[in-house]
Design brief:
This protein is an alpha/beta fold. It contains eleven helices and 13 strands. The strands form three sheets. It has a six-stranded mixed beta sheet with strand order 4-5-7-6-12-13. Strands 1, 2, 3, 10 and 11 form a five-stranded parallel beta sheet that branches. The radius of gyration is 18 Å and the shape is globular. The N and C termini lie far apart (37 Å). The structure holds zinc ion (ZN).
Length: 309
């Protein structure tokens, strides 16, 4: 049977339930090794679900996790999923210096490539923390050999987002070269751009509403870029202390995520980012350029000036 031509991107940020930014604290970070690890079992569960649905995806793996579970990373790749980088230590870029960021993404890429013996092209920042203030990160990504990024969320949010950013896949021109940007999906409703890409939104919206919004986007010709986390499929994970908002965002409807994902996989056709957007394999090919925007240090403060289409 020929495989259906994939149209949309499905991705997972592989991290432990205690590493999420909502529960971040220096004290907790020091004790990461003492928390119950659940990432391997949760990711295995996801791999099985995807295999049963005959769907492949992109896994943005945290270097800290890859270091501890190299066999898991090989299993992800052996199932023909794409392995990409979620950085090493899950520090928000907004809390890092450029030098620390470079070390973090270099270390993660090195660990993943040593495990897989193949190049890792993609990166996603912890909590989408490439913002207007950290746009310098795009230049460093290019310098460290990343070809595409999926960290700039074109929405207004209390912890991340660049509301004016291009919501479609495009290229950023940094002082060190071009970087493909693959933004998480958003859709304009009544003049407001709202996220429909996954994560907490996937658990918050009634599924029928979400599907309507995704169909609207699909009808506009866009490829969806969805993201989820292995811990979102683990309703029995230990509860962490944190603010009421953080706890609501993290624990809401965890018992519904698995069913919703199965339904989503029936309703839409998904594949890894590298396959949905093969342009990322040819980042410097002029005919592949869709739109180039200025990012990185080359033009501080500007992230939405299209140079050409
Ligand atoms: Zn993360």
């Amino acid at each position: 049977m020929p495989e259906t031509i994939p149209k949309h991107c499905l991705s997972f940020d592989v991290e432990e339930h205690f590493q999420v930014s909502a529960f971040e604290s220096p004290m907790r970070r020091r004790h990461w090794d003492q928390y119950e690890s659940r990432v391997e079992a949760n990711t295995e569960k996801l791999l099985e679900l995807l295999q049963n649905s005959r769907v492949r995806a992109t896994f943005f793996v945290l270097g800290w996790v890859a270091e501890r579970y190299p066999t898991l990373i090989r299993r992800i790749a052996a199932a023909k999923h794409e392995v990409a980088s979620h950085g090493y230590a899950h520090e928000l870029i907004t809390a890092q210096t450029p030098a620390a960021f470079r070390d973090d993404i270099r270390k993660a890429k090195g660990i993943l490539e040593d495990i897989l013996s193949q190049p890792v092209l993609g990166y996603r920042a912890p909590s989408f923390s490439i913002t207007k203030d950290t746009m310098w990160a795009t230049q460093i990504l290019v310098e460290e050999g990343y070809i595409y990024d999926s960290s700039i969320f074109p929405v207004l949010h209390d912890r991340y987002g660049v509301p004016s950013a291009n919501p479609n896949m495009h290229q950023l021109l940094t002082a060190s070269g071009l970087l493909w940007e693959v933004p998480p999906s958003t859709v304009k409703c009544l003049g407001v751009r709202v996220p429909v890409a996954g994560g907490g939104y996937f658990r918050l919206y009634p599924y029928v509403l979400l599907r309507t919004l995704l169909r609207k986007l699909e009808g506009e010709g866009a490829s969806l870029v969805m993201y989820m986390h292995p811990w979102e499929f683990d309703p029995n994970q230990p509860r962490m202390e944190g603010s009421a908002v953080s706890r609501l965002r993290h624990y809401l409807n965890l018992d519904k995520t698995e069913f919703r994902l199965r339904t989503l996989l029936q309703d839409f056709s998904f594949a890894p980012i590298r396959e949905v957007f093969p342009q990322v394999e040819h980042q410097n090919s002029p005919q592949m350029r869709t739109a180039v925007e200025v990012g990185g240090n080359s033009c501080p403060g500007s992230s939405s000036g299209a140079l050409f289409n």
